[in-house]
Prior knowledge:
Elements: E1 5-10, H1 16-27, E2 30-32, H2 34-44, H3 48-55, H4 60-70, H5 87-103, E3 106-109, E4 123-129, H6 132-140, H7 146-168, E5 180-183, H8 189-201
Parallel strand pairs: 1-3, 1-4, 2-3, 4-5
Amino acid sequence: MECKVISISRALGAGGEEIGLDVAARLGFRFVDEEIVARAAEKAGVSPQTIEKAERTPPLVERILQFMGTTAVEPAGYVPAVAQMSPAYEALIEQVIRETAAQGNVVIVAHGASIPLAGQSGVLRVLVTGSPDSRAARISSQGSDLRKTRKAVEDSDRERKRYLERFYGIGAELPTHYDIVLNTDVLPLSVAADVIVAAAKGS
């Protein structure tokens, strides 16, 4: 069955955004990430920043990279504050995810979209992950301090776990929540994209 929706969940530093952009370009699909936040904000009658602060305080990668660049790692470990998500905002984000998927020909990255889209026809759910060390090394290769990136990966993983539990009641993320799990420790990002495109085309 040919897929019209690809949902990519990713751990920080695993290359999920890059893979998603590559897959979208190859298939001629739209790439959607922050559009989810913008449309939910429009429905709620609030600014996108309000949804961002409630959901990820602000977009997770941007916030963590800003934090790494401006704040020293404290001995006790600093975890940026996470705003509480209104139940109404939670419902709106899930609604926008479903509406976006219904339009088809789209790659949706983040927002835990693979969970509410489970069981829908034409949806391919992908997890892009890797070991904490390899993910930290990938981020630090762009010029960040390795010690800080390791801390950022740890904080990100903890927040991602809380996000899935708060939004979708997922206490433990399992491989069975996805159709494909890609470990980019040794798998080049372009090859990971090859796998997703082949699966989406049913080849």
